[in-house]
Design goal:
Length: 260
């Protein structure tokens, strides 16, 4: 027969277990999982939008309004790589007019195919136009945006000085690509070239000032037996460090061959 003291201990333990379980299962201050913000004014694309074009083409980056607030502006911005941390405004428009900004803005206009159309027209696209663009509706209350990718079709090719391997600082690499009718490749362009078979052991500068080399077939003479992929040296000193270059162009004559 149990004593009153023993019964009291059991009741206390059961009570503590109950409140412990309750507090673990419900916490009014616990952060709930974030849900994507539903767009009120812009029509959200059903899938990630990528527009492709070649140098010299005219392209349209779609941005359609679902409904119009009473007062608003549309702002188009080109998003540079995260490493560079730049956002270049192309244009800002209202219902009556638009104001262009920068080099890209001089070749840009709004399509205005209908009253809900805020799509961006880019004429005579250049190699450097490749990248992500943001269409932003601004009304001071519920600002929202969508992002469109413009992919300039072309080819990435490794390039080194006629004086030999690893002779370019960043600025010289940039100039060398320009002399070959190209520009320094972006990381995304280099990655795409790697997926298509570019295999190169010499490290080279790319557009954002970082240095990489793509390896499809790992081998001892090409960085050891590390897995295939884009080998990276990260950002380097643009004035003093010297490497080759990875250039990008929309047209190339001859044939690029892989080498050790």
């Amino acid at each position: 027969m149990t004593s009153f003291k023993e019964n009291f201990v059991w009741i206390l333990l059961i009570t503590l277990c109950f409140f412990s379980h309750s507090s673990a299962s419900y916490n009014p201050h616990r952060a709930e999982p974030a849900t994507p913000k539903k767009l009120l004014y812009l029509l959200e694309p059903p899938v990630q939008v990528e527009v492709a074009g070649r140098r010299g083409d005219n392209v349209t980056l779609p941005c359609i309004l679902r409904t119009k607030p009473n007062h608003y502006k549309i702002k188009w911005t080109k998003l540079e790589s995260e490493h560079m941390g730049q956002q270049n405004v192309i244009m800002i428009s209202n219902a009556n007019a638009f104001k262009p900004y920068g080099h890209v803005g001089q070749r840009a206009s709004l399509q205005r195919a209908h009253t809900m159309d805020a799509s961006l027209l880019l004429s005579n696209v250049e190699l450097g136009d490749d990248g992500r663009y943001r269409c932003e509706l601004i009304n001071g209350i519920e600002d929202e945006n969508i992002v469109i990718t413009l992919r300039i079709e072309g080819v990435v090719f490794p390039y080194q000085s006629e004086r030999g391997r690893y002779k370019f600082n960043f600025h010289e690499a940039k100039q060398a690509c320009a002399e070959q009718d190209g520009i320094l490749s972006t990381y995304n362009q280099l990655y795409r070239a790697w997926t298509e078979g570019l295999d190169w052991c010499n490290a080279g500068w790319i557009y954002d000032g970082t240095v990489h080399y793509p390896v499809v077939h790992p081998r001892p003479v090409c960085g050891g037996e590390l897995p295939a992929g884009i080998r990276s040296y990260g950002p380097k000193d643009k004035n003093h460090d010297r490497f080759d270059a990875f250039c990008f162009t929309s047209q190339i004559s001859g044939k690029v061959e892989n080498k050790l």
